[in-house]
Amino acid sequence: MGRARQLLAPVGAVLHAARRPASYGGHFREVVSTAVTAGVWPTGFGGQGLGRLHDLEAPDTVVEAPVLLVHGYGANKSNWMFVRRHLHQAGFGRLHAFNYNALAADIPRLAERCAEQADELRTRLGVDRVHLVGHSLGGIIARYAVQVLGLRGVGVCITIASPHGGVRLARYSAPFASMAPLHSASSLRPDSTVMTLLRSSARPLPTRFVAYYSNLDLLVAARRARIVEPELDATNILVKDHGHLSILWSRQLASSVVDQLGAAEGLAGYGRPTHSLEARRALGPVDAPHLRLVERAGGADEAAG
After folding, report:
1. Domain range holding 183?
2. What H or E segment, with its residue span, contains residue 108?
3. Sign of CA dihedral 58, 274, 291, 163
4. Which residues of 115-138 are buried (b: 16+ CB within 10 A; e: fewer)?
């Protein structure tokens, strides 16, 4: 009975959302976004490495720190088309994508490769920090690289619809966990070694963690997409009425990511990074017009898109 309830949970979520007409548009956006994502997917292959230094340079960049984008399971760098455009318009010219095959390695190995590419970016560009932005599995890879592997020089680690609390459906891959194509998927079980290690190794770090989640995500429930370990002092931001894929095509999400990184880089007009209510009372008001609901790990805060 317990397993049947878990399998039917997404159906229950849809029926619950159906009682709120405002969610209809969100589900429609998810259907459209799925089609768009599938359409641009063939354009995102290639570019596994960083290439030549000349290719890394961006003469029109305002921000020296590079941003490394980490896609989700079964996806590729084409997923970042919309977010990438917003970042570039804001002055982030050094935008690079970590393309990987989730069927060929487990999360620890993928995190190692992500960390290697982040370090290579910093070294070859001669900068002291890099920002990480990951969607779904990519957010777990980025967090693992920083928190477990000790990747240094990461200013902000942003995760979008990433299953920090694990994915219940991944439990059913347990009997096949030793099979290479299912390594990374089975590691998303709530009780897996990877998830347990992320919880147990949480500690204060110089990297700021920001986690975006949505109320209409049928793959990663809102409560599982938040970083709740208080030691990490993460900022959790709701992007309302978007699904697992449509969130990447959300103007609110893209604008908020720009706000977070722009504030971290001290760009004019972006204010300061989002803080908890207690910290913000001490720092004074912060202008964040794109946000609707913001939470801190361990407690609710105020508003995101």
Report:
1. 2-303
2. helix 107-125
3. positive
4. bebbebbbeebeeebbbbbbbbbb
Residue-wise pLDDT for 146-185, tens only, equals 999 999 999 999 999 999 999 876 555 444 444 444 567 7
Q: What is the pLDDT of residues 187-202, one digit of tens each?
A: 899 999 999 999 999 9
Number of structural domains the chain divides into: 1
Digit-coded pLDDT (tens) for 270-287: 877 765 444 444 444 444
| Cβ–Cβ under 8 Å, residues 82 and 249 | yes
Residue 131 β-bridge partners: 67
Burial of 183 (0-12, 13-18, 19+ CB in 10 A): buried
CA separation for the pair 110, 116 (Å, rounded):
10
Report the distance separating Cα 210 and Cα 295, nearest Å.
10
**Rounded CA gap, 163 and 182, in Å?**
16
CATH number at residue 230: 3.40.50.1820
Contact 94, 65 (CB under 8 A): yes
pTM of the full structure = 0.82
Distances in whole angstroms, Cα of residue 171 to Cα of each of 33, 251, 263: 27, 34, 39
State the CB neighbour count (10 A cutoff) for residue 244.
21
If you write DSSP's letter for every residue of 181-218 in order, what string do you get? GGHHHHTTSTTSHHHHHHHHT----SSEEEEEE-TT-S
